[in-house]
């Protein structure tokens, strides 16, 4: 009888812990605090830099290749949560085998490379468990792991969040 009671208690505790272990699927808007969501005046992503020069002036925004908000406000309640977030990969280096295991996850293709970097609260610094082949980086990916609210600087842009030991898989529509 004691064995049955202990087994019942263990199962109950395990079931209660399931919601805490659940992965929360996020969108990019979830990384911006509610009181900072009015991004009026921020330029929209543009992949044609010839038009970007016409829409931005150096007096208003400075150099269009420089990140406008390198220390944008973050959502501190995301710290420690297991999350899943879709996005595009901007490599920070290439491993010896030709794969990428450290990168910036960004909300749109070309961010930080072909267009100005988004605010830091729209960039996640990621270290993946398994490298992604360089030839596959032109597609979107899901990144899953424990989110840390942590500013990380890189040569390309600052990130407001970090996921270490991430699981990375192609985004499916």
In short:
With 173 residues, this protein is of the alpha/beta class.
Portion of residues in beta strands equals 25-35%
Q: Per CATH, which architecture? A: Beta Barrel
Averaged pLDDT: 80
Shape, principal axes of CA atoms:
globular
The fold-level CATH name is: OB fold (Dihydrolipoamide Acetyltransferase, E2P)
Helix content: 10-25%
The largest pleated sheet is described as: 5 strands, mixed, barrel
Low-confidence stretches: 3-20, 40-49, 55-61
**CATH class group:** Mainly Beta
What is the domain tally?
1
Reading the helices and strands in chain order gives: HEHHEEEEE
Q: Given the helix and strand composition, which structural class is it?
A: alpha/beta
Query: For this structure, what is the CATH homologous superfamily?
Result: Protein of unknown function (DUF3299)
Q: Radius of gyration, rounded?
A: 20 Å
- The first-to-last residue Cα distance is 51 Å
Total strands: 6
Task: Give, in spatial order, the strands making up the sheet with the most strands.
Answer: 2-3-4-6-5
Q: What is the number of helical segments per DSSP (H or I, 4+ residues)?
A: 3
Would you kindly provide a written description of the structure presented here, covering whatever features stand out?
The protein has helices spanning 2-21, 49-55, 58-61; strands spanning 24-25, 82-91, 99-106, 124-133, 141-152, 159-170. The protein has a 5-stranded mixed beta barrel with strand order 2-3-4-6-5. The protein has a single domain (23-33, 47-170), classed as Beta Barrel (OB fold (Dihydrolipoamide Acetyltransferase, E2P)), CATH 2.40.50. The chain has 3 helices and 6 strands, in the order αβααβββββ. It is globular, with a radius of gyration of 20 Å. It is an alpha/beta fold.
């Amino acid at each position: 009888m004691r064995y049955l009671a202990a087994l019942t208690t263990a199962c109950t505790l395990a079931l209660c812990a399931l919601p805490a272990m659940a992965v929360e699927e996020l969108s990019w808007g979830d990384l911006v605090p509610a009181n900072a969501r009015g991004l009026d005046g921020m330029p929209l992503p543009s992949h044609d830099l010839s038009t970007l020069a016409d829409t931005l002036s150096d007096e208003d925004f400075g150099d269009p290749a420089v990140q406008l908000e390198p220390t944008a406000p973050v959502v501190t309640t995301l710290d420690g949560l297991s999350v899943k977030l879709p996005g595009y990969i901007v490599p920070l280096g290439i491993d010896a085998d030709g794969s990428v295991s450290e990168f910036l996850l960004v909300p749109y293709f070309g961010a930080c490379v072909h267009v100005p970097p988004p605010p830091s609260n729209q960039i996640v610094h990621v270290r993946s468990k398994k490298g992604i082949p360089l030839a596959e980086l032109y597609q979107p990916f899901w990144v899953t792991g424990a989110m840390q609210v942590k500013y990380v600087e890189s040569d390309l842009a600052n990130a407001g969040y970090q996921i270490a030991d991430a699981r990375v898989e192609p985004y499916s529509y």
